[in-house]
Amino acid sequence: MTRLLTHLRHVDLAVPDYEKQLDFYAGVWGLTQVAEDSGISFLAAEGSPEQYIVRLRRAEEKRLDLISYGAATPADVDTLAEQLLAGRAQLITRPGTVDTPGGGYGFRFFDVDGRTIEVSADVATRTHRRIEEKESIPVRLSHVVVNSPDLDRTRTWYEQHLGFALSDSLASPHMGEVMHFMRISNQHHSMAIAKGPHTSLHHISFELRGVDEYMYGTGRVLRAGVRKIWGPGRHLAGNNTFSYFLDPHGNTVEYTTELERLDEDSWHPHVYDFSQPEVTDQWGTANAMSEIVAKESFNDVDRGCFTAPPV
């Protein structure tokens, strides 16, 4: 199908301890709070033209509120909505005015696992700046990874309904395929789908300026006492660096840089055996991948499946 999505805009989280979560993202993690209203905060990356890349909402239960993608034009938004309806996807809203910072034109719908997805166009850009050398704060949102109990069903749905393409997969002789890296541009992945015991958020990844800034950031977060799960290292699939931490509500967040850009005309997906240590970490500097590390990113069962967020 024709690719109508352009990029990842933001990831929205609901949490019971709103103040603690806000202190983490607007403090040690390095985002900038740009707006707040009645228990909802919008957090931007200083190097990104997006109005915000993370939204936090005060709620009784932890959940993933939504994942938001951009489209080039309102006409593309309308076309995508029509295609989703024709494919029997469940729309939450019809295309119309978006009532969040930057405005725009968009709509929301459920994916095959019940996550709320938003697509929008004509969102005003935010004044941003060049991140300086040794400045260890996020430049932009890099990618999001979700857990699915039916890996191939979710992959097929995103290919058929949203125009994602497969870049690479991870597998092992004992477990079969466990992750699909999916793209909507020449960026190796804007999303990945991990095999998990339930539908949930796996991790949110934030791009830093370069390897030096990524290492400074990793060290800064470690010195702040934030629990590190895995890293620092460099993956084979995507060729990006990684340092994974837990936010105060147990969501995994990643600092990364140098995610691979592909020649889409000549690219052929690989299936990498993640039981080989050089696949998970080319450098050999990270703590070894293990079941304990993997389970940290299973996260809690998402309470938001097929339930739209209130805002």
Automatic annotation (TrEMBL):
Any Pfam family the entry gives: Glyoxalase
Gene3D superfamilies attached to this UniProt entry: 2,3-Dihydroxybiphenyl 1,2-Dioxygenase, domain 1
Residue ranges of domain VOC in the record: 7-122, 140-258
Superkingdom: Bacteria
PANTHER family: GLYOXALASE FAMILY PROTEIN (PTHR21366), METALLOTHIOL TRANSFERASE FOSB (PTHR21366:SF31)
Protein's recorded name: VOC family protein
